[in-house]
Amino acid sequence: MIRVALLVAAKDLRIEARSRVLLWQVVPFGVIALVLAGLALGPSRAGSSGAGPGLFYLVLVLVALLMITRSHGLERAAGTRSSVATLGLDPAGVFLGKSLALLVELASAALVLASGSVLLLHTSLAGTLRAAPSMTLALAGLAAAGTLYGALSAGEGAATLLPLVALPAMTPLLVAGERAYSAAVSGGALAPWWLILVCALVAYLGLGILLYGVLEDL
Predict the structure, then answer these.
(1) What's the pLDDT score for residue 23?
(2) Residue 155, class by beta-carbon neighbours within 10 Å (0-12 exposed, 13-18 middle, 19+ buried)?
(3) How large is the angle between the packed helices 191-216 and 132-152, nearest 10 degrees?
(4) 149 Cβ partners below 8 Å, 6+ apart?
(5) Structural domain count, the chain
(6) How many CA atoms lie within 13 A of 11 on its CB side?
(7) Parent domain of 62
(8) How far apart (Å, rounded) are the C-alpha atoms in residues 14 and 51?
(9) Sign of CA dihedral 111, 132, 121, 182
(10) Which pTM was predicted?
(11) What is the DSSP letter of 25?
(12) CA distances (Å), 98 to each of 20, 53, 81, 115, 134, in order?
């Protein structure tokens, strides 16, 4: 399973490195969305540290939806599913591999967005660094949930169906991630939000390992 996961992750990341969609389309979209969200709040509110965590996660979920749609779009290419079936790849390994690749891509985008939050929204740099571990947990949970629900909504109309099925599932991760980020900025306790992030990550990893193969066959 681990070997399959590493092969699938490497394949997805190589495709992304060659296409550079993340670099030239998704990340610029995220930066523009962050700037527009700050402008919508106005200079007085957007320039406060308190606005940064919420805007960061709001934009992050939009970026995540684009990446999830693209990740599963790769599997809809002609012959891809039949090739996977012919090779007999372990569905759990495929799930973990796609989740790992998505996590790497999300982490790259999150690094840019967090930098933008610090530079443009004046979020505390020390607080952002303190929140980095909780961000990593939230990103891992988003990657696992996105891979699972991306398979559920794969097919025609996936770009519009995915937000309907994925956003409710991502809500605990987004709320806990934002609260942990805000607590890190303000110097509050992170423990309650860490517990939610860990439980959500374990739940989505478990569901994905058990159900990904079934969802891919639907």
Answers:
(1) 79
(2) exposed
(3) 20
(4) 68, 162, 165, 166, 169
(5) 1
(6) 18
(7) 2-216
(8) 36
(9) positive
(10) 0.87
(11) I
(12) 17, 27, 14, 26, 21
The tokens of 141 are what? 């949970």
Backbone CA torsion sign across 27, 49, 36, 147 = positive
pLDDT tens digit sequence for 142-193:
999 988 888 776 654 555 677 777 888 899 999 999 999 999 988 877 778 8
Q: Are 137 and 172 in contact (CB under 8 A)?
A: no
Structure tokens belonging to residue 20: 């550079």
Nearest to 56 by CA among 162, 129, 163, 135: 135
What lies within 8 Å, CB to CB, of 125 at 6+ separation is 118
The DSSP result for 171-190, as a single string, is: HHHHHHHHHHHHHHHHT---
pLDDT of res. 41? 75
Taking only the tens place, the pLDDT of each residue in 4-53 is 888 888 988 888 888 888 878 888 999 999 888 878 777 666 656 577 88
